[in-house]
Amino acid sequence: MDVASNYKQFIRLLTAMILASAVLINLTSCSEDVETPVDPLVGQYKFVSAILTTDPIPDVPGLDAGSDVSDIIGGALFGVVTCTNSANTAIELKSTNELYFICIGESVEEKGGTWSSNSTETEFTLNFSSPPFVQPFSLLLTDVVFDGTTLTGYAGNLILPASLVPNAPPGAPIVTFSVDLTFAKQ
Q1: I need a labelling partner for 86 at 20 to 30 A (CA). Which of 32, 36, 110, 156 fits?
Q2: Whole-angstrom Cα distance, residue 136 to residue 129?
Q3: Count of domains in the chain?
Q4: What domain range is 136 assigned to?
């Protein structure tokens, strides 16, 4: 073999290696990134209703099992954000598991804590932070049903300061509610 044929073989080998490298680089750079699925609970929700499932503790005149306490619960939970139109008041569950109080269509946003759900999405927890609340607390919803537009669940032992509950017995520091809550995804 002479120098010329060795040189030609070397050039062919080098060319093949360069082409192979270019193909590999092209294949790896064109691969699609695998996106992690977004939890279906992520989104904006308006509070719809709170219905007592048992009598409050202590007894509050006019409030019995089956009573609609949406104004009381809604005021306690959403009173931390002031919207130009109160109908725009909502919570936003972010994919980072952060919870925000928002005004839909307005530029109002107040970080309110975090949220989580179990793997079967039958339990849902809202962890409210301080601020905006006087002290942090958690709201556990069980028997959760989410149909893509409506989220419902049971909240037992929801404790509110008696000052937020009309007709609360004098001297009672707190009132405990067990309620069925409903939120509508926007």
Answers
A1: 156
A2: 4
A3: 1
A4: 43-185
| pLDDT of the residue at 146 | 95
Q: What is the CATH number of the domain that holds 130?
A: 2.40.128
Torsion angles phi and psi, residue 86, rounded to 5 = -60, -20
3-state SS string over the chain?
CCHHHHHHHHHHHHHHHHHHHHHHHHHHHCCCCCCCCCCCCCEEEEEEEEEECCCCECCECCECCCCECHHHHHHHHHCCCCCCCHHHEEEEECCCCEEEEEECCCCEEEEEEEEEECCCCCCEEEEECCCCCCCCEEEEEEEEEECCCEEEEEEEEEEEEHHHCCCCCCCCCEEEEEEEEEEEEC
Contact by Cβ (8 Å): 126, 139? yes
Which residue ranges in the chain fall short of pLDDT 50? 14
Q: How far is residue 155 from each of residues 61, 73, 95, 105, 144, measured CA to CA in Å? A: 21, 11, 23, 29, 10
